[in-house]
């Protein structure tokens, strides 16, 4: 039940992010080409949302098997060999995530310490006016007089994204060790393309008959 609800949350958030990016880019294009103007904050917000989409989505990709990989060698191994190779691969991926988590923590800590703000995105004054000035700066690095969104907050997805990715790889490692799966589930673009081509051909054939 909880896993299903979290899956819906993941899919909903990813859909929200990609939809927001699409709408923002559409508004920016219309503003530039038809009204000869633009919004600097849209560009910065779109880049931020794209980073959230990618870094949050990479753990979801591991979960549903959307990542692309090369398994031509692994598939030739016996079952036990495939298991050992998969355990080694997931161990490397776990180490990769741990290194990036450490680097992300150091980077965000430095951004918080310095208090670097985003260039064009500010918090609403109605919200900021509810905060104590000392708390806003010491805890959040928000200047009440110029309430720009702090860079550490907008880039905090580094911790969330790699934290979730680490969780997925640990989950996969345990599943492989318990013989619940043979290894990574990878996207098969060739197979998907053939299925799509067959569906299109079938639909065209139905249209010709009608």
Q: Care to give the gist of this entry?
A:
By secondary structure, the chain is mainly alpha-helical. The chain contains 8 helices and 2 strands; from the N terminus they run H-H-H-E-H-H-E-H-H-H. The model has no long low-confidence stretch (mean pLDDT 85).
Q: Give the overall pLDDT as a whole number.
A: 85
What general outline do the C-alpha atoms trace? globular
Find the count of extended strands (DSSP E, 2+ residues).
2
- Helix and strand content put the structural class at mainly alpha
Unreliable runs: none
| Beta fraction | under 5%
For the biggest sheet, the summary is:
2 strands, antiparallel
What is the share of helical residues? over 70%
User: How far apart are the termini?
Assistant: 45 Å
Radius of gyration: 23 Å
Describe the structure.
The chain has 210 residues and is mainly alpha-helical. 73% of the residues lie in helices and 4% in strands. It is built from eight helices and two strands, in the order αααβααβααα. Helix 1 packs antiparallel against helix 2 (40-64), helix 2 packs parallel to helix 7 and helix 3 (79-114) packs antiparallel against helix 7 (157-177). The two termini are 45 Å apart. The relative contact order is 0.12. The mean pLDDT is 85. Belongs to the TRAP transporter small permease family. Keywords: Cell inner membrane, Cell membrane, Membrane, Transmembrane, Transmembrane helix, Transport.
């Amino acid at each position: 039940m909880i896993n299903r609800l979290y899956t819906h949350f993941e899919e909903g958030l990813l859909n929200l992010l990609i939809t927001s990016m699409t709408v923002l880019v559409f508004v920016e294009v219309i503003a530039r080409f038809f009204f000869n103007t633009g919004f600097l904050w849209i560009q910065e917000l779109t880049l931020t949302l794209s980073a959230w989409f990618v870094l949050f989505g990479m753990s979801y990709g591991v979960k549903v098997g959307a990542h692309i990989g090369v398994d031509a060698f692994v598939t030739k191994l016996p079952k036990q060999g495939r298991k050992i190779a998969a355990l080694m691969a997931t161990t490397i991926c776990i180490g990769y995530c741990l290194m990036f988590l450490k680097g992300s923590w150091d980077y965000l800590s430095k951004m918080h310490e310095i208090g670097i703000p985003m260039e064009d995105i500010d918090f609403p004054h109605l919200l900021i006016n509810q905060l104590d000035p000392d708390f806003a700066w010491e805890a959040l690095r928000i200047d009440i007089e110029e309430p720009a969104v702090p860079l550490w907050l907008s880039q905090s997805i580094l911790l969330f994204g790699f934290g979730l990715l680490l969780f997925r790889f640990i989950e996969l490692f345990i599943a492989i060790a318990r013989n619940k799966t043979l290894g990574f589930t990878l996207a098969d673009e060739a197979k998907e393309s053939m299925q799509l081509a067959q569906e299109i051909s079938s639909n065209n054939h139905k249209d010709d008959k009608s």
